[in-house]
Write a structure and sequence with these properties.
Elements (H helix, E strand, L loop, with lengths): L1 H17 L1 H15 L4 H40 L5 E3 L2 H9 L2 H19 L5 E3 L6 H13 L3 H30 L7 E2 L8 H14 L10 H8 L5 H15 L4 H43 L6 E3 L9 H20 L5 E2 L10 H8 L3 H32 L12 E3 L6 H13 L4 H38 L1
Parallel strand pairs: 1-5, 1-6, 2-4, 3-4
């Protein structure tokens, strides 16, 4: 295992050291060149992807900082006391990439993806190298909880295979949400979407118990056509900013500032979402030409980061409504010790909600509110591990008391965090945990298989609709 880890470090470490945006720009450019895309077009796509990743990160940081301030005011106003600090995703990514095992897991997942492509078990080539840290975190957590490297590798591989299968399943829905042509190659293996099976369970319950609520739903774009700017993205941002500002007792000046920040963020998200689409276009054409010539019509998809969906206003509208709901739930949820701050904008929650509900905002908010406790509990469970690892590699955030525990609220893959914890403890031979881990893994697989069947039905309906037109 040490030999494999050393190889992974030598192959990937120079790329990882560049950071997410430069790394993904280089990766996309090289892959485009492999598919015979003109060098200038390949470089154009790579640079656009790097710019898009940088832009989406800057806007998320701006929005998160604005809402974190409002939430801090709310905490001060209510006297709320929770002893785990939510530091957001960036410190956790730094901590995870600080482990040599992360590069080892990356190498394993690359090999698994290649094998699945060769055996025709997937049509997705995953190029989102940076975000492998979400799944690597699960493996590291299981090791911390007691698993050896072999068991952690099996767990990461198991989830990784399902993650790639899920990218294939979601592809037609992405085309529908983006009104993209069939030739589009964009999909994603992001851990956000491993919540899809759980969300679909709630969505089916919604179908049975509350279908009448759908008639009150609205589409931001259609609403805008009917009532003008009152239904626009920036207007929705202003409404949400006012709501959160009033909830946290801010002054009129602060409420205006929060509202305008939310408004400009929603507008910019739409613009930057298009950048992701434009960045993939040269590679998309290259893959189309390659597959038509070499693979007898077989279609290959490219798994990139999730924000190519960022142009859908529902993601941000739901996230901003769920922010105060999350804080209120954190106050009363038994077993939670995590104060939502850095992850208050629920980017680990709303993209999956969009895919499963196909943009029905009321469903996104209701189901999101129901599933938020899973994220809070997972963040609380992982806090001792995150804190210990941050101190060991010298990445403990400045400004946080040394005695404080740290974690993240809307950490991608909360179910997988529980699996890592159970598998780690089961590896120590504790019979109780062995039973829990076995039942959890069986349930996880069965729910995913059911979800796969439902998504295949949806995809068949998409195909039938296309053939009838």
């Amino acid at each position: 295992m040490d030999f494999i880890i050393d190889i992974a470090n030598k192959i990937f470490q120079p790329l990882i050291d560049l950071g997410a945006a430069p790394m993904m720009a280089i990766v996309l450019t090289l892959i485009a060149l492999l598919f015979k895309v003109k060098p200038s077009r390949a470089l154009e796509g790579g640079l656009k992807l790097g710019i898009a990743i940088t832009g989406i990160g800057a806007i998320i940081d701006m929005l998160t900082n604005a809402f974190s301030g409002a939430m801090e005011d709310f905490v001060e106003l209510t006297g709320l006391s929770l002893n785990i600090t939510d530091v957001g995703w960036a410190p956790l990514a730094t901590i995870t990439w600080g482990s040599p095992y992360t590069l080892y897991f990356l190498l394993i997942l690359v090999i698994v993806n290649v094998i699945m492509l060769i055996w025709k078990k997937t049509n997705t080539l995953d190029v989102d190298i940076f975000d492998v840290w979400h799944l690597a975190f699960v493996g590291l957590f299981s090791i911390w909880a007691g698993a050896n490297l072999l068991i952690a590798t099996v767990l990461v591989t198991f989830i990784g295979v399902l993650k790639i299968i899920n990218a294939d399943l979601m592809k037609p829905t992405f085309n529908d949400l983006l009104n993209a042509p069939e030739s589009s190659v964009m999909t994603t293996t992001h851990m956000n979407y491993m919540m899809n099976p759980i969300i679909m369970v709630f969505d089916k319950i919604f179908d049975k118990l509350f279908p009448w609520l759908d008639k009150y739903d609205f589409d931001a774009a259609k609403l805008n056509n009917k009532i003008g700017f009152w239904g626009s993205k920036f207007a929705i941002g202003i409404y949400l900013g006012i709501f959160v500002g009033l909830l946290s007792g801010q002054s009129a000046t602060e409420i205006f500032e929060l509202s305008f920040t939310a408004a400009v963020s929603l507008e910019l998200f739409s613009l930057i979402g298009q950048w992701f689409i434009d960045a993939i276009e040269p590679l998309s054409q290259g893959i189309t030409d390659f597959t038509s010539k070499r693979l007898k019509g077989r279609t290959l998809n490219i798994g990139i980061d999730w924000p190519f969906l960022a142009g859908r206003a529902e993601i941000w509208a739901a996230a901003n409504v769920l922010a105060p709901i999350m804080l209120l739930e954190a106050m009363i949820l038994p077993g939670n010790a995590l104060l939502p701050l850095g992850g208050i904008i629920a980017m680990g929650v709303t993209p999956a909600l969009l895919v499963v509900t196909r943009g029905r905002i009321i469903r996104m908010i209701v189901i999101g509110a129901i599933e938020l406790p899973i994220f809070l509990w997972a963040g609380t469970l992982a806090a001792p591990f995150v804190t210990n690892m941050a101190k060991n590699i010298g990445a403990f955030p400045e400004g946080v008391a040394d005695s404080q525990l740290i974690s993240q609220t809307t950490m991608e893959g909360p179910i997988e965090k529980f699996l890592g914890y159970l598998v780690g403890n089961a590896s120590q031979g504790q019979v109780e945990f062995m039973i829990y881990a076995a039942l959890a893994l069986i349930a996880y697989l069965l729910i995913f298989m059911w979800y796969r069947r439902e998504m295949r039905k949806r995809n068949a309906a998409y195909a039938a609709e296309k053939n009838s037109n």
